[in-house]
Give the backbone structure.
Amino acid sequence: MVLQSIEKQHHVNFNYIDNEIIPFKIEPPKKALSLSEKINYLRKKTNLLFKNIDNKFITISSKKETELICGYVFSRINNTPQEGVNIQNLNGSKTTTDKNGYFELKKEESSEIQMSHVGFAIKKIVTSELQNKNCLKFFLDLEVLELDKVNTNRYLTSGISKTIDGTFIIKPKKLGILPGLIEPDVLQTMLQIPGIYSADESLSSINVRGGTHDQNLFLWNGIRMYQTGHFFGLISAFNPNLAHTITISKNGSSAFYGESVSSVVDISSNPNKIENNSFSAGINMINADVYSKFNINRKGFIEIAARRSITDLVKTPTYKEYFNKAFQNTTITNFSNNQNIDFLNNAKFNFYDITLKYSQKIGSKDHIIVDLITTNDQLTVDQKTTINNVVQSENNSLIQKNNGANLSWKRNWNAKNTSKINVFASAYQLDAQKTRIQDNQIVIQENGVLNDGFKIENNHIINSKFTINDGYQLDEIGTTNLDQVNTPLFYRKIKTVLRTHALIVEGKYNDSLSKIYFKTGVRLNYMEQFKKYEIEPRLQFNYRISDNLSLEVLGEFKSQNCYQVIDRQQDYFGIEKRRWILSNNATIPIQRSKQASFGFSYTQNNWLLTLDNYYKKVTGINSSSQGFQNQLEFVSINGDYEVLGTELLIQKKINHFITWLSYAYNDNNYHFPNITQTEFSNNFELKHVVSWSGTYEIRNFKIALGSKWYSGRPETTPSTYIINNSDPANPTIDYNYPNNKKLDNFFQVNFSTTYKWESSDKIEYKIGVSVLNVLNRRNEINEYYRINTTTNSIEDVKTYSIERTPNLSFRVIF
């Protein structure tokens, strides 16, 4: 009480060890005495040592303890003294620095002191190492506090997390297990997140909150990928054993991302640090792959990965099911109406992908990375049949490939400023050739995209709470479309180029004390050919209401000039019928989107509850980009779609067991003002989607069982099954209003399990087993109608989901 009274009256702080002052009981000094007089009074009464520092801090010690630690604390950024730094000996005593950064603290044998200050990283010093070293200078490193950068550490399974900026982070090397997956497939994994689905089970047709696949931006190490699937959408084009981090944004994406009106999927294979040399090889019932990484010096390495299908060598049960799913209702399996063709003995299919990375740090400030990627799918089919005693035959070939390169240079100018420059190029090509031997007819179709440019990104740390990013991006995109027939002679080639400049600025405020995260940015696009500006604001806001409850608000405006359309449903044999085109700002408009969402996240006692509500509108869509197979199939009109949705996830972890249930609702409607029925359901609307999963992971054993159910997609039915022959040269089908009916509900159960072990020579082995559609349910995923000229009737054509499909994988890691 004596010391507390003096502290209150003279505005000083006493630093002491309780055990050294407890034995003394004295009368308080008179209040009228000065501070120095009171200290002399206490010194005489207790025989203790009192050391006064600037009339602010007074250390008390026994006479036998004379050894002190003293020092000055500075910021490493600008060498300024830091006042108010907390200095604490872990054995008890503590103090704070004065305005000069000075402190004194009793030294205690075999202990350590800890320095902590708001905005700086904690520094620990072992006191036994400070013998004969008095009044040293200590420097604190700046720390940009992230307010729990990871908002949810385990989202669905280990290796998936949700951050406070609304993005999802997937780390494949740490990924647990998900139903139906035995490898950390990038795109299959993202389909587990509420609000992301594929209406036709294809990884080349991923719908995020009602958008089409081409409206998503897929980046691999800064390279835009225009081909995302092998086997025409059933397998991801990205090697699952390569990626280190995958960032997925459904809304509120960074202003440094452009050219998309839906989600952003940013895949990085860059490790955070130099790792040991490694080699692995694996095989499953579709493909085999190898991976190798070796260090070329202390700060550089080369990484090579290659994957190739084994389908041209062995026809596994998995391959047969994939083939049937991918090519049903296409000219590969049916090149004349109502005539099934035996294609298996004449079909050759294979795919491969190769990646190469060179990473080199130069000194302490520079880092250079070179990335190369190539993906390739090839299909050749020789078909033959007899119709009306006439032999008909076709030789078909289809090649789809995407090559890309990126050169990245990062420079750390100082502790507060960094710059990064990316120079990138991506080339996509889709070629098809059909040869009808009996007619000597050759049909050639080509679609190509060449995208190159560079991006500059600067990062400035203003203080521990506030950062600013700014930059510039140049994008040049060219598309080519070719249609050529030798009999009758027809030739059409369309080539367009668009160059876009973008200025970008972002500001981020992150305060762990007020529990506020706020990031806002703007992207200003200028399109040279149109002489047009587009302003795209972005917003991310997170507020920690309590330790368990967070509020999230996201918003964005975005635009897109390059997207996919369908000229005819049988283009490219009906397999990859979409072709990339560029906007002309007239008949082919610029697509624009605006989206806003708000939600909550609650975590407690291993429970996780997330709720997101959103509104999304995309304008400038063309009907040819939506895959219509009804009265709008050959109509080119512009319009928009509008989505109102909710996404809910409930998750519980019990020891090694995780179970979760998700629900997504979206009301997604087109609006085409130039037709009679101006508003109707979107082709990709799945109004209700429910998923459940249970996973168990213990040591090296993992097992998962899950199911998904969703309401049927819209379809358009004929108003009559009598062919309309009002124009005999062009018979048609009379339809009800577009998307007047729903398909039956979809339900599927999937299973997977993996086990890994290590031999005595430190070689790791991993085996996995999965089964898709365990119950072998026949799910209809699409339905349309066509005129069968052979029977002169309207034919109902149905497409079904994949049947029960097993898969087995084995991997060796050195």
Summary: The chain has a mean pLDDT of 89. Residues 35-46 form the longest helix (12 residues). The chain has five helices and 50 strands.
